[in-house]
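testing teh design pipeline on a random one, pls ignore if ur not involved
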């Protein structure tokens, strides 16, 4: 009787170990709030095929930086052609927030990730997501950059989720 319990426990443990050595991208993405975005973002980067979870977090931060940079450039282009002073002010605010994400906040998150300061990295990238949402919210439903803000927000939130799996 005791021997069968030991064998059963061994088999259960073996299955857990084998199950946990699967695809790190799938395993990580299953712990995020946006599984599909996670898979498409991480798998789009060839580094993901050999990355550990920390490497996947770096890839997610790089994607968040790229999306914030796209939003920044969109609002810079929009500002050049904007005649409405209210929209010009909103565009200027979005330029400041996305520019801050690209130049300061996301690089800080990457430095913190590199230094294994996961809580600080997550806090920084969460701020970047909040900034993108704030840019969108100031337009009160009439933002010309909804797609860019959503992409910047969602990839930053994804990066926060991935970093959150590290501890």
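output:
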């Amino acid at each position: 009787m005791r021997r069968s319990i030991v064998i059963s426990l061994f088999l259960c443990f073996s299955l857990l170990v084998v199950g946990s050595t699967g695809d790190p991208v799938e395993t990580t993405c299953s712990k995020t709030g946006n599984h599909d975005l996670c898979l498409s973002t991480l798998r789009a980067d060839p580094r993901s095929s050999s990355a550990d979870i920390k490497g996947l977090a770096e890839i997610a931060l790089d994607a968040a930086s790229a999306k914030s940079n796209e939003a920044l450039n969109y609002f810079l282009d929009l500002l050049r052609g904007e005649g409405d002073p209210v929209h010009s002010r909103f565009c200027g605010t979005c330029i400041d927030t996305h520019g801050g994400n690209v130049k300061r906040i996301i690089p800080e998150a990457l430095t913190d990730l590199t230094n294994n300061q996961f809580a600080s990295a997550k806090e920084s990238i969460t701020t970047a997501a909040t900034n993108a949402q704030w840019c969108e919210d100031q337009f009160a439903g009439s933002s010309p950059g909804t797609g860019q803000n959503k992409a910047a927000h969602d990839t930053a939130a994804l990066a926060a989720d991935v970093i959150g799996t590290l501890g």
